[in-house]
Amino acid sequence: MRFTTQQNGEHHVAIPDHSPLQIGTLQGILKDIAAHHNMTVTELLAHLDM
Length: 50
Known about the structure:
By secondary structure, this protein is of the alpha+beta class. It has one domain (2-47). Helix content is 42%, strand content 16%. Strands 1-2 form a two-stranded antiparallel sheet. Strand 1 (2-5) and strand 2 form a beta hairpin.
């Protein structure tokens, strides 16, 4: 699946459509999203209330 945001400029992220995701894959996705928003992964997870 490919998700796009317009927040902070256009950004695309591809997320595999299977379960379970490998921990390294999930970590890479979170790092990519956090970097786009100028956050750390910890800050992103706090923002998402996780």
